[in-house]
UniProtKB/TrEMBL annotation, chain A:
Name assigned to this protein: 2-amino-3-ketobutyrate coenzyme a ligase
Cofactor: pyridoxal 5'-phosphate
One Gene Ontology MF term: ligase activity
Similarity field: Belongs to the class-II pyridoxal-phosphate-dependent aminotransferase family.
Origin species: Anaeramoeba flamelloides
Record-linked Pfam families: Aminotran_1_2 (PF00155)
Keywords: Acyltransferase, Ligase, Pyridoxal phosphate, Transferase
UniProtKB/TrEMBL annotation, chain B:
Record flagged with keyword Acyltransferase: yes
UniProt-listed Enzyme Commission number(s): 2.3.1.29
UniProt GO BP: L-threonine catabolic process
HAMAP family: 2am3keto_CoA_ligase (MF_00985)
Annotated protein name in UniProt: 2-amino-3-ketobutyrate coenzyme A ligase, mitochondrial
Record-linked InterPro entries: 2am3keto_CoA_ligase, Aminotrans_II_pyridoxalP_BS, Aminotransferase_I/II_large, AON_synthase_class-II, PyrdxlP-dep_Trfase, PyrdxlP-dep_Trfase_major, PyrdxlP-dep_Trfase_small
Top-tier EC class: transferase
Similarity comment: family membership: Belongs to the class-II pyridoxal-phosphate-dependent aminotransferase family.
Catalytic activity: glycine + acetyl-CoA = (2S)-2-amino-3-oxobutanoate + CoA
Keywords: Acyltransferase, Ligase, Pyridoxal phosphate, Transferase
Species for this entry: Anaeramoeba flamelloides
A cellular component annotation (GO) from this entry: mitochondrion
Length: 407, 419
């Protein structure tokens, strides 16, 4: 190695600092498929998983697995190409059409991940010049990938509005009237709290101040809103939002893939200019096949969506009854608020000993003093599994003095 | 079934409101792209990726000479089986980032194999090398706490450029393409920083030229710098045992970090990685944003990739075949009078200089059953348009000859051949 002494030195110190701060991330190793119940190296019995984005329980769904395997047989392992050279198969355009139809929008563009869809969005949607200027107005708590997408769009006037604060959004929109185009970007569901963006009000302001609305529905597509079309649908604003960015790597099977869906003119532009689309490999056949099947499943029936709703209501009700601090909401992301980071981490360890796999989130992922265990409910959880988790939470809660023993 | 679904609500795509000014502007910009002749249309393939493919709109199959399918593995039955087996054993997806519940034993196994293959300490997986590059510079040395300079070859891949743009307060410096004198000057300038990182493609994708990695390492040693090489157009097939341009230049043991892809020669499905010293990889696991905030790699991809490295660790047969094919094609095309940038890499730019000519040439080639693409401004500099041929180990001699004959025919037709 050239062994840059300074780099090695500095990075070793950085790692030490992370360990000292107690924020070092370890990876537990799973030896089974992803499911409501999993096998983790180092624990003798299986544990119940309450921290995956496996909202509909599809991550090890046999029908999707068959679809993936069948598509490997028909369309091969990979394309080894970006889309526009020789990386588009008939199945890619079919999936894009399916996504568009599901959302009642005109066209869709596929990406390796919603992370790429977001990072490739702002710079790709519009060519900036002296005559064409852009303002991007983004919720303060938006996902890291949206933040990176905005950062990559250096020529734009980049404004942040306070989390879900419509007055602040309005004032930023007024500030941005100088620019020729305005884009408001928001998560549909914010991943740390499970709170829903006020999308109707955002669209009202967008109308008033002539702005495009982009909503990231990664924690909603497939299971939130009456037919699973996301927070936009939940708010009754699906036909008012211009563009949706979302993922196939959460509820829709969890393998990988992302997309942007919306008006054809914008999608056409992204195909011509979006950097992750132009310079990164096309989505592999297996994933396209599984995702197409996943959309078919959720379009055919809302059974899974309703099961998830039922599970979510049950869990929320029981946990509130038991005395836990949970923000009011309807989403399967349920933050159990614990205050101090140290408490959250200890709590999660105790839960694992009781066979429940959850993760504690603390600073800097969430603000100081707002550490939590973020539970994610799945349609795949049975009532018994939900009860087991609730009981474990109560037991540990009493043990650690988080809830009163009389409850 | 779809119509049933849509019948249940009002089925119309009329939006209640759209930003009229934005729409109008974007429509206009699309028209400008069309007018400039740089509009990218996508041809639709209705077969597996292979040396011979079916393209919608053409009657017979065509021979594909523009895929990154260097070892012909994109439809390898063995890899396809491995992918399917892994779906059976490890499921469809993890629906999780790595550190929450997205690490299976197979992920660790693949990381170990990649490290072993490169004779380095550890590896970190990503959805793509695009993400590996995107996440590297910011995740590496904290530019708020230390002064970092990044020295990047002017023709580096778009993903490296984006990664550098995301590196915040780091000092961003560009050196002229493969210009070691300019690199040295910049390194001297950057001596006031705490850390220097030199970053370069191992093989540059438009010309197939190889970075002078030995000289880069010499300079890195002299001026105390980290060396990162992107081996996307090299891993698996370039260098004596397919370990990349770093191996080709005999400095595999001197490069600190390699970023590369599983989405080109190694089966082409998806995936990327960073491999290097454990301490660097540990840091990326704690800080790299695409790693922390994006889904873990799907089991099918991991399984197929493990199989690929198994194959590569055992034999250089495929890589040797590719070398043979490449030499043959280069020799024949040079003899025929084409202007080809000299080199050994399976990326072979057939120089045509004018953009319009490159596009017409590619169309004529398709008529003769050879699928190639013309590259012109702005992808390559004005006046340097070309057809970029990519040879595969999967190409037979007959297929190579068919392509060469077609090139010669069209070349004569268009008057491109040297007398």
């Amino acid at each position: 190695m050239t062994d840059s002494k300074s780099a090695l030195d500095i990075i070793s110190k950085q790692l030490d600092q992370i360990r000292e701060a107690g924020t070092y991330k370890e990876e537990r190793i799973i030896v089974s498929q992803q499911s409501s119940e999993i096998d983790v190296e180092g624990t003798e019995e299986k544990v119940l998983n309450f921290c995956a984005n496996n909202y509909l329980g599809l991550s090890n769904n046999k029908v999707l697995m068959e679809a993936a395997k069948k598509t490997i047989d028909t369309h091969g392992l990979g394309l080894s190409s970006v889309r526009f050279i020789c990386g588009t198969q008939n199945i890619h355009t079919k999936l894009e059409k399916t996504i568009a139809q599901f959302h009642e929008m005109e066209d869709a563009i596929l990406y390796s991940s919603c992370f790429d869809a977001n990072t490739g969005f702002f710079e790709g949607i519009l060519a900036l010049s002296e005559g064409t200027t852009l303002a991007i107005i983004s919720d303060a708590l938006n996902h890291a990938s949206i933040i990176d997408g905005v950062r990559l769009c250096r020529k734009a006037n980049r404004l942040i509005y306070k989390h879900m604060d419509m007055e602040d959004l309005e004032s930023k929109l007024q500030q941005a009237q100088e620019q020729t185009v305005r884009i408001i970007a928001t998560d549909g569901i914010f991943s740390m709290d499970g709170d829903v963006a006020p999308i109707n009000e955002i669209c009202d302001l967008a109308e008033k101040y002539d702005a495009i609305v982009m909503v990231d529905e990664s924690h909603a597509t497939g299971f939130f809103g009456k037919k699973g079309r996301g927070a936009s649908e939940f708010c009754g604003a699906l036909n008012r939002v211009d563009l949706i960015c979302s993922t196939m790597g959460k509820a829709l099977g969890g393998s990988s893939g992302g997309f942007t869906v919306g008006k054809k003119v914008y999608i056409d532009m992204l195909r011509q200019r979006s950097r992750p689309y132009l310079f990164s490999n096309t989505v592999s056949p297996a994933i396209v096949g599984a995702a197409t099947k996943a959309f078919e499943i959720i379009m055919e029936s809302t059974d899974l969506l309703l099961k998830l709703q039922e599970n979510t209501r049950y869990f929320r009700t029981k946990m509130l009854e038991a005395g836990f601090k949970i923000p009011i909401g309807e989403h399967p992301i349920i933050p159990i608020m614990l205050g101090e980071g140290r408490v959250a981490i200890e709590y999660a360890d105790k839960m694992l000993k009781k066979g429940i796999y959850v993760i504690g989130f603390s600073y800097p992922v969430v603000p100081k003093g707002k550490a939590r265990i973020r539970v994610q409910i799945s349609a795949g959880h049975s009532k018994e599994q939900l009860d087991k988790a609730i009981n474990a939470f109560i037991e540990v809660g009493k043990d650690m003095g988080v809830i009163k023993s009389e409850n | 079934m779809l119509s049933n679904f849509l019948q249940k609500q009002q089925y119309n795509y009329v939006r209640n409101f759209t930003s009229k000014s934005a729409e109008r502007i974007v429509k206009q910009q699309l028209q400008e792209i069309r007018n400039a002749g740089t509009w990218k249309a996508e041809r639709i393939i209705n077969t597996q990726q292979s040396a011979s493919i079916g393209v919608e709109g053409t009657w017979n199959k065509v021979l594909n000479f523009c895929a990154n399918n260097y070892l012909g593995l994109s439809n390898s039955p063995e890899l396809m089986q491995a992918a399917k087996d892994t779906i059976d054993s490890h499921g469809l997806g993890l629906s999780s980032v790595r550190f929450i519940c997205g690490t299976q034993n197979i992920h660790k196994k693949l990381e170990n194999m990649i490290a072993k293959f490169h004779r380095m300490e550890d590896t970190i997986l990503y959805s793509s090398c695009f993400d590996a590059n995107g996440g590297l510079f910011e995740g590496f040395v904290d530019p708020v706490k230390s002064k970092v300079a990044i020295l990047s070859d002017a023709l580096n891949h778009a993903s490296i450029i984006d990664g550098i743009r995301l590196s915040g307060k780091a000092r961003k410096m560009r050196y002229n393409h493969i210009d070691m004198q300019d690199l040295e000057n910049k390194l001297i300038e950057a001596q006031d920083q705490d850390v220097r990182i030199i970053t370069t493609d191992g093989v540059f994708s438009m010309d197939g030229d190889v970075a002078p990695i030995e000289k880069i390492c010499d300079l890195a040693e002299r001026y105390d710098s980290v060396v990162m090489v992107d081996e996307s157009h090299a891993t698996g097939f370039f260098g004596k045992t397919g370990r990349g341009a770093s191996e080709f230049c005999n400095v595999l043991d001197r490069v600190d970090i390699i970023n590369s892809t599983l989405g080109k020669a190694l089966g082409g499905s998806s995936g990327g990685f960073t491999v290097g010293k454990k301490c660097y990889i540990d840091m990326l696991r704690q800080r790299s944003r695409p790693y922390l905030f994006s889904n873990t790699l799907a089991p099918a991809v991991v399984g197929a990739s493990i199989k690929v490295f198994d194959i590569l660790l055992k034999s250089t047969e495929l890589r040797d075949q590719l070398e043979k094919n490449t030499l043959y094609f280069r020799e024949k095309m040079t003899k025929a009078g084409f202007d080809i940038l000299a080199g050994e890499h399976p990326i072979i730019p057939i120089m045509l200089y004018e953009g319009k000519l490159a596009n017409e040439f590619a169309d004529e080639m398709l008529k003769r059953g050879i699928y190639v693409i013309g590259f012109s401004y702005p992808v390559v500099p004005k006046g340097e348009a070309r057809i970029r041929v990519q040879i595969s180990a999967g190409h037979t001699k007959e297929q190579l000859d068919k392509a060469i004959d077609a090139f010669v025919e069209v070349g004569k037709l268009k008057g491109c051949l040297k007398k």
